[in-house]
Amino acid sequence: MNTLEKLELLSENCSDNTELERIIGQLLNVILIRHRQKLAIYNSDVEQFEIKYQLTSEQFVEQFNSGSLGDAMDYFEWFGLCELRQDILQKIHKLEQAL
Description:
By secondary structure, the chain is mostly helical.
């Protein structure tokens, strides 16, 4: 059974839309909590780079994108973390709007 079929089955077996909305809200809240936990990890990792290189992530990304920093592996890891953090922030924002 695929996900869409499972959702249809859930919809068919809920007594009304209020119950279905409550269940979906609970699932979205679980996902939101997981995303916030990931964000905390990303923030901690990014902060270590900010301390190490004495740059904010905004300053770093600007310099990295301009090519003025070089090709150190730390920079690529930091840049990747900044991108992951931005992505998870967007997901958190959408989930918060849905709840």
